From TrEMBL:
One of its GO terms (biological process) is methylation. Keywords: Methyltransferase, Transferase. GO terms for molecular function: methyltransferase activity. The keyword Zinc does not apply. SUPFAM superfamilies: S-adenosyl-L-methionine-dependent methyltransferases. This is Class I SAM-dependent methyltransferase. The keyword Transferase applies. CDD domains: AdoMet_MTases (cd02440). It holds the Pfam family Methyltransf_25.
Length: 254
């Protein structure tokens, strides 16, 4: 599969009204209490008595409960439909959002916390864009503030040749197949969803491109932005980061 065929897709194409309408999963998945609770707890702790800025705030999955904890939260979001979905939940005074991309858009004010959750930095498809994202985060931070990144750890075990495909999830009604290109560090997720109430031979297919990043590469990006790694854990609850950890929560301090 030629991954360059996805290059013409913009983030606006990927995160359109259809994606925004299906993004929220109340009580399950990313919004399950055991996932969302520790995330908000840790972010509130890191924000302290200062303000927080969420890059790619989406529909407010994390930002809204964080604001309900008393943290002043602002968001940056590229997708207008995602902002529209957020606005169905809270108003501008409760959670201001600036329409723009997380690599270059500036927000007025100074923040004690900037954060990126659920692998979102991988939506930036080049190393230059990811470095710019770190620099943008650092530019928003007050002295002593921190930038938090949640990201999966690339697992290339068994990869052979230039490209390799693997099944990431196989369950009733949904199959995820990832196609990766180690040369460009591109991973394209193919989502196959089967309607359980209709003909199971029919499926909807969507694709999302990512650029995967090693923890060490993130650390170097942080150094280029004037930040240093303060801590790295396997999850939001503070689990120890080990060689076989599938993801990490990294805190970079200015």
């Amino acid at each position: 599969m030629d991954l360059t065929r996805l290059d013409h897709l913009t983030q606006d194409d990927l995160w359109d009204a259809r994606a925004a309408s299906a993004y929220d999963t109340p009580g399950r998945g990313m919004e399950a209490p055991e996932v969302l609770g520790p995330t908000v707890d840790r972010l509130a702790e890191l924000a302290g008595d200062g303000a927080a800025l969420e890059f790619a705030v989406g529909t407010g999955r994390v930002a809204i409960p964080l604001a309900e904890r008393g943290v002043s939260v602002t968001g940056i979001e590229l997708s207008a439909p995602m902002i529209g979905r957020l606005r169905e939940k809270v108003g501008e005074q409760t959670l201001p959002v600036v329409h723009g991309d997380m690599a270059t858009t500036r927000v007025e004010g100074e923040f004690s916390l900037v954060y990126l959750v659920f692998n979102t930095i991988s939506n930036l498809l080049t190393q230059d864009e990811q470095v710019a994202c770190f620099r943008n985060a650092a530019a928003h931070l007050r002295p002593g503030g921190c930038f938090v990144v949640e990201l999966w750890v690339p697992d290339l075990t068994g990869s052979a040749g230039r490209e390799s495909a693997r099944v990431g999830v196989a369950q009733d009604g949904y199959v995820l197949v990832d196609v990766l290109d180690p040369v460009t560090q591109r991973l394209t997720s193919h989502h196959f969803r089967f309607d359980q109430d209709e003909d199971r031979r029919a499926a909807t297919v969507s694709r999302t491109p990512h650029r995967y990043v090693w923890p060490a590469e993130l650390d170097l990006m942080a150094q280029l932005a004037g930040l240093h790694l303060e801590s790295r854990h396997a999850d939001w609850a503070g689990g120890e980061f080990l060689a076989d950890s599938g993801s990490h929560v990294s805190v970079y301090r200015r």
